[in-house]
Amino acid sequence: MIVRSRHLLLACVLLMSPSAFAQQDQDAELKALREEVRQMRQEYEARIADLEARLDATENPPAETRSLAAEPAPKLEAEPETEPYDPKPYEPEPVYSAQTVSVARDSSFNPAIGVTFQGQAWSYEHDPEDYMIPGFPLGGEAGPAPEGLSLAETEITMSANVDDKFTAMLTVPIVIEDGDVVVELEEAWVETLALPGGLALRMGRFFADIGYLNNRHFHSWDFADQPLAYQVFLGNQYIDDGLQLRWLAPTDFYLEFIGEVLRGDRYPAGGAANSGVGSTTLGFKTGGDVGISNSWLFGFSWLSADADERESGDEDEPLLFTGDTDLYIADFVWKWAPNGNSRQQNFTFQAEYMWRNESGFYQLPSVEDGPWDYDQSGWYAQAVYQPFPRWRFGVRYDRLSGDTPDMIWAGTPLYPLGDDPTRYSWMVDWSNSEFSRLRFQYNHDSATEMTDNQFGLQYIFSIGAHGAHTF
């Protein structure tokens, strides 16, 4: 009987085991399915959040997004970035250096803020305090950098959308002048985002959109100083208060027209003539791609400025000019990068020509006032080549020329030398990332009475938000 019971119990166990094992397998499979569903749910929730953020950015674009349309249509392009070593291929970028605005739903109390640190060291054969170009008195911020070690502009930039119709930008450089710390207001403007028909209106203080270099910040230049033509005709850079209207034409290629009405309180204007409407500008820009490795940009602009006792030359005994200035500028840029990828290799050729007529009279400290109606011109051409990542090499040539005035001006800063002023410049820079750059530059300057060999070192470092620069 006992043997039979054991056999019966064993049989029951054998009959029950398969169903127990099957139950265990089923539980494991259900657990795996639940885990897979949980992972899929997390993945789709993350994708939905990303799509919502992109949709929000599209419906409420920052200032940069609107200005992208103001650049040539091509997406692939040879771009040796003016910002140190950009690891991405070139894409058209804003015509100003406003920082990228956060795509968060509410940026009212979270503007994009960036700081750029700049320093320099220069050595000259002759005292830069005595620097002058005979026949071309310098005004505005023109002239060589201080000798020895010095701090250049420390630039603080803030930008954000005001609302769905306007965006705003503020640029405040901190500089050292005669040993004192000076806080300046360089840019302070508001711009529309939603005007119809490709129109955009800017209001406030801004760099005039004339020529190629005028509206670019100091840290985005390919050389440590401006060409001679910019120093002579625009006082280094022309910035003023006023209104700017841009229209992007509805064409298959890039074509934009720009007009400005300005106060006329800064060189080459002066004195805010005509009841505070002393300057006007008109111009256009056009460009496009040639294949996938080349792109180009051409611009033409005109500046009309009224001057009321505009100062130039020596600060202690300045020349005062009252009259009219007409300045015409043609600029051309060609950029190359293999297959449009500028990260490894790129090349840029850039040139501008300026022609100026000034009609009025000068007041000189040592001679009688005299009428002035003469033409002057200047141009530069430069090439910058990046043969491999991080390293760039550049060369630039400057030249000025103009009419020879009457002998009554002989012996004054308005009377030129026999030869046209010229200058050769060479530079090499190294960028560890898009946020840092070190540069060495040499100038062979024959624009003055005595040829000057100039050596300069420069550093540029950026922290915080900082958008890419324009084409």
Architecture overview:
The protein has helices spanning 2-59, 63-68, 228-234, 273-276; strands at 112-123, 148-151, 154-161, 166-177, 180-183, 187-192, 199-207, 239-248, 254-262, 279-290, 294-312, 319-336, 346-363, 370-388, 391-402, 422-433, 436-445, 452-464. The model is unreliable at 1-22 and 63-107 (pLDDT under 50). The termini are far apart. It folds into two domains: 1-55; 68-464, Beta Barrel (Porin), CATH 2.40.160.10. It is built from four helices and 18 strands. A hairpin with a 6-residue loop joins strand 17 (436-445) and strand 18 (452-464).
In short:
It contains 4 helices and 18 strands. By secondary structure, it is an alpha+beta fold. It has 2 domains: 1-55; 68-464, Beta Barrel (Porin), CATH 2.40.160.
Percent in helix: 10-25%
Number of domains: 2
Shape: elongated
The rounded Rg comes to 31 Å
Which fold does the CATH topology of the largest domain refer to?
Answer: Porin
Q: If strands are numbered along the chain, what order do they take across the biggest sheet?
A: 1-3-4-6-7-8-9-10-11-12-13-14-15-16-17-18
The largest β sheet comes out as:
16 strands, antiparallel, barrel
Question: Can you count the beta strands?
Answer: 18
Strand fraction? 35-45%
Structural class: alpha+beta
What is the level 1 CATH name of the largest domain? Mainly Beta
What is the mean pLDDT? Answer: 85
> Total number of helical segments?
4
CA distance, first residue to last residue? 100 Å
* Low-confidence runs of at least 5 consecutive residues: 1-22, 63-107
Question: What is the CATH architecture term of the largest domain?
Answer: Beta Barrel
> Can you write the helix and strand succession as a string?
HHEEEEEEEHEEHEEEEEEEEE
User: What is the CATH homology-level superfamily of the largest domain?
Assistant: Porin
